[in-house]
Design brief:
The structure holds two protein chains of two kinds. Chain A is mainly alpha-helical. Helices cover about 70% and strands about 0% of the residues of chain A. Chain A folds into two domains: about 55 residues, no CATH class; about 200 residues, Orthogonal Bundle (MetI-like fold). The longest helix of chain A has about 30 residues. The radius of gyration of chain A is 24 Å and the shape is flat. Chain A starts with a helix and ends in a 13-residue tail after the last helix. Chain B is of the alpha+beta class. Chain B has eight helices and 20 strands. In chain B, the strands form four sheets. Chain B has a six-stranded mixed beta sheet, with helices on both faces. Chain B has a five-stranded antiparallel beta sheet with strand order 13-12-11-14-20. A five-stranded antiparallel beta sheet of chain B has the order 15-19-16-17-18, with no helix packed on it. The chains are: A mainly alpha, B alpha+beta.
């Protein structure tokens, strides 16, 4: 299997290898540093942080800061911890990601395989929504949410994120489906499959890679969003807003270890999505449908 | 009225008409090949039969039922696509029965149909594989199998062999022909390859620039092409078309042509009505295989005309030797037996089978009918 071993363009000698790995190692350490600091300090009692070295490993290991951040810390006025807000985020992000991905897939399918007069303009307008800064729509959005009675609720946030997400998810799916052979759709039409049947049985099963890309993108964006959450969250604020409230609270001692634990908790879901979804990011699903 | 009727069908995109008043009637069990260069409208016509493209005017009827506007799945047709269009996420078996499933055929019947067709095409061992694991020829079979399982009224083939390599293409061509002879199905087949058209069809429609140039059996198309376009498109090497003048000697028309030395030669026509063209210019069409050495000439022909002319180059091609010469100011090709001893740069005695010659009107390029 010489072909497999020799998959780099240039043959590299031992010294070059050491150099390459050395550089990579330095960069890795650089990138891992913040994570290390966060994890290490979240496992220390507070006096260890205030008293000395941020870079040191804990002398006394404790999970207390994590428990605090999760269920006891003062967020705003209530000592609830981040738990309810974490739940809010989940309740917001899951439907928002699912709906925007499904709508994006349908849009992409229609725009490429059921083209109609003016489809390019529609696509252009959808694409345009990707370039509208969040701040511009805050006030109109607040008005709309108020009028339809969704202000300050999780469904309201879901709606906002779906509307904002459709532009991107449509872009992804349209570009993916435009290279999907139209003959397959025609064959399915002759076979008697209808609009949704073709979508469900023919298009979606081969859309794995682009679904993963869209889900990762949407999940990260919606989970990490602060502005919409702070503006439209009302009583059901998401994790990001709660984390801000936790870290920015101005009374009493700053509990850095709890803050670190809270920050990791807030970042954890996106990390998990990357690790889990990335595994399903398989190439070559299209192989063999048509002559390559 | 035929089994599949295409009546006065046109196709326009906006103001541009790309297909002009096509009229073809296909009988049951016929193998009609639509042949022509790319952009001639043959695939458009096929897609219109399939229902994948709308008909601008005219009617298409299958078994007497006008199907304009009928959904593709309700026309009882099946189509084999150029790219095979196998569903990548389904196994071969699922691919082949998908259409039946969509039409609500119960599973036991689907399985029976699948088994029969798989046996016919010898792909029983592939049924659990995914299309990605098949070779080009196997995919081609599966694509045909998917069409056969449906047992449709009309099969539509859209350049099904053009993605295969040369050897496999010839094999699959034979198989399609065998299949047609066995099943006696009605087939409309689109190709740009005139050899495929000749070998497979019971009738050919030669298309060019959105017009059906000629509709006829392979023999009619080959021997009596309707115009210069059909004459030169069908056959390889192409028919020689030479400008000539008609002269009448002893009440028999002859073609007068300058040979390579600039000497006027006369070739006696077998077509008496050409006397009306006395003194006028025509285009003389002769197939390469009608120009041979005297020994290789067709013994059944009553009109072999000898012609001594200078040999251009010779191209031995194994079974045949192609000999080029200049006639009437044009380079023309003769197809001879392999051991004809024509030598480049020497004079050679050619024998022209004028029984097979055709004449065209130079103004309209239409054949002058006998």
């Amino acid at each position: 299997m010489a072909a497999v071993e020799q998959d780099t363009a240039v043959r590299t000698g031992g010294l070059t290898r050491i150099f390459i790995y050395g550089i990579l190692l330095i960069f890795m350490l650089f990138y891992m540093m913040p994570l290390f600091v966060m994890v290490a300090n979240s496992l220390k009692p507070l006096p260890e942080i205030t008293g000395g070295n941020m870079m040191a490993l804990p002398q006394v290991w404790t999970l207390e800061p994590w428990r605090q951040a999760w269920s006891a810390a003062q967020i705003g006025v209530e000592p609830t911890g981040l738990k309810p807000y974490f739940l809010n985020s989940i309740l917001m992000v899951v439907p928002a990601v699912l709906i925007s991905t499904i709508l994006g897939a349908l849009n992409g399918y229609v725009l490429t395989k059921w083209s109609f007069r003016g489809d390019k303009i529609i696509f252009g307008l959808l694409l345009f929504s990707c370039f509208i800064p969040f701040q511009i729509v805050l006030i109109p959005m607040a008005t709309v949410l108020g009028k339809i009675g969704l202000a300050g609720s999780i469904p309201g946030l879901v709606l906002v994120h779906v509307v904002y997400g459709i532009g991107f998810s449509t872009l992804y799916f349209r570009n993916y489906y435009s290279s999907f052979p139209t003959e397959l759709v025609r064959a399915a039409m002759i076979d008697g499959a209808g609009f949704f049947r073709i979508f469900w049985r023919i298009m979606l099963p081969v859309s794995g890679p682009i679904i993963v890309v869209t889900v990762i993108w949407q999940f990260t964006n919606i989970w990490n969003d602060f502005l919409f959450g702070a503006s439209f969250g009302g009583q059901s604020q998401p994790m990001t807003v709660a984390l801000n409230n936790l870290v920015q609270s101005s009374t009493g001692v700053k509990e850095y270890n709890v803050h670190f634990a809270g920050a990791i908790l807030a970042a954890l879901p996106t990390l998990i999505v990357y690790i889990v979804a990335g595994r399903f990011f398989v190439r070559g699903l299209m192989a063999g449908s048509v002559k390559g | 009225m035929g089994f599949l009727d295409i009546r006065n069908v046109t196709k326009s995109y906006g103001a541009v008409e790309v297909l002009h008043r096509v009229d073809i009637s296909v009988e049951e069990g016929e193998f009609l090949v639509l042949v022509g260069p790319s952009g001639c409208g043959k695939s458009t016509l096929l897609n219109m039969i399939a229902g994948l493209e709308a008909i601008s005017s005219g009617d298409i009827a299958i078994k007497g039922r006008v199907v304009n506007g009928v959904h593709p799945s309700k026309r009882n047709i099946a189509m084999v696509f150029q790219s095979y269009a196998l569903y990548p996420n389904m196994t071969v078996g699922q691919n082949m029965t998908f259409g039946l499933e969509m039409h609500g055929v119960p599973k036991p019947e689907r399985d029976t149909a699948l088994r029969d067709v798989a046996k016919l095409l010898q792909i029983e061992n592939l049924l659990d594989r995914k299309p990605g694991q098949l070779s080009g020829g196997q995919r081609q079979r599966v694509a045909m199998g998917r069409a056969l399982v449906r047992n449709p009224d009309v099969f539509l083939f859209d350049e099904p062999l053009s993605n295969l390599d040369a050897k496999l293409r010839v094999d699959m061509r034979t198989e399609i022909k065998k299949l047609h002879e066995k099943l006696k199905t009605t087939i409309v087949y689109v190709t740009h390859d005139q050899i495929e058209a000749m070998t497979l069809s019971t009738r050919i429609a030669v298309m060019y620039q959105g017009y059906v140039q000629q509709l006829g059996t392979p023999k009619e198309i080959y021997d009596t092409p309707a115009n210069v376009y059909v004459a030169t498109f069908m056959g390889s090497p192409a028919m020689n078309v030479i400008p000539a003048r008609v002269v009448v000697k002893d009440a028999v028309p002859h073609a007068q042509i300058k040979d390579a030395h600039g000497v006027e030669q006369t070739l006696r026509f077998s077509q008496p009505n050409l006397v009306e063209w006395n003194g006028k210019d025509i285009l003389l069409g002769i197939r390469p295989e009608s120009i041979t050495d005297p020994d290789g000439a067709d013994r059944n022909s009553k009109n072999i005309v000898p012609l001594r002319n200078l040999v251009g180059i010779t191209e031995p091609a194994g079974a045949d030797t192609f000999v080029a010469m200049e006639l009437g100011g044009k380079d023309i090709v003769a197809r001879m037996r392999a051991d004809a001893n024509a030598m480049s740069g020497r004079d050679f005695d050619f024998a022209i089978n004028m029984e097979k010659a055709v004449a065209f009107d130079p103004a309209t390029e239409m054949r002058i009918k006998p």
